[in-house]
Amino acid sequence: MKAAAQDRPTTHYIWLTRGDGKVRASHAANNGKVFAWDNQPPTGHPGENYGCRCIAQPYVPRVDEYLKQVVTSIVDEGLHRWEWYEFVWHFYLGEGRQIRLSDVGHLQNIINRARQRKVEQVFERLERQILQQARSIGSGQFTGDSSNTYDFSTVSSIHGGSKVITNYAGSVRKKGNALLIEVKINYFYEDEFTDPLSDRERNIGTSDPSKYPPGMPLEGEYGGTLYRIYDSWSTELNAVVDIDSSKSGYR
Questions:
Q1: Which of 17, 151, 157, 166 lies in disulfide reach of 31, CB 3.0 to 4.6 Å?
Q2: How far does the chain reach from its first CA to its final CA, in angstroms?
Q3: Domain ranges of the chain
Q4: pLDDT score, position 113
Q5: What is the Cα–Cα distance from 124 to 129, expressed in whole angstroms?
Q6: SS3 labels along 38-50
Q7: If 0-12 CB within 10 Å is exposed, 13-18 middle and 19+ buried, where does residue 185 land?
Q8: At what angle do helices 122-137 and 107-115 cross, to 10 degrees?
Q9: Sign of dihedral through CA atoms 78, 80, 82, 85?
Q10: Contact at 8 Å (CB) between 170 and 176?
Q11: pTM
Q12: Which of these, 206, 235, 233, lies nearest to 101 by C-alpha position?
């Protein structure tokens, strides 16, 4: 399977299982579907997982597909990148002043994490939403939004449960069997530093001030003051995909 993946005679393949009771449920759900080698499903490609007996049957798509999402905003960060303890110092000494990621050297790393496949899937999740919406209308203008919580703790332990809110506007038009999609997207990062020792999270399961039980003060432990951490960036998405999602490597 690895040798076949390296040769890759086509850009796309049809996922085929053995069709027996040993097939994993997640792989059975992929059976008969078309995938692109450069846009792997959440399960990975056939044969990548240990013990997987699925195969990739070469497939020539009806449409020369592609999807690109490019960051268009300029990331201008400070020279000094904050360490975790500087966020804690600000909790005690900053008097609640909000912090912008670009001012503390964390924005580019957050964006890099957001665009990674099979990790947080921030970009990928929104791309799936946009493709589904574009296919549903077929032709015309469309807008949308989303809001999800992600774990960016590999950038810093400070960014454990952060919210990413998006809005977008774009257009789609038909050309033969293809959809031509152009979308402008705005991403907004939101977090609140409220719980440096995780006391509240351990005791009540959350550090979200809006979910504190009645009578629990909003101020932080041991005299600290909660503060907002935020920033934003923009991207442009351009794609050509098959109208029929079952015949597309992008779905």
A1: 17
A2: 24
A3: 2-60, 67-247
A4: 93
A5: 9
A6: CECCCCCCCCCCC
A7: buried
A8: 50
A9: negative
A10: no
A11: 0.78
A12: 233
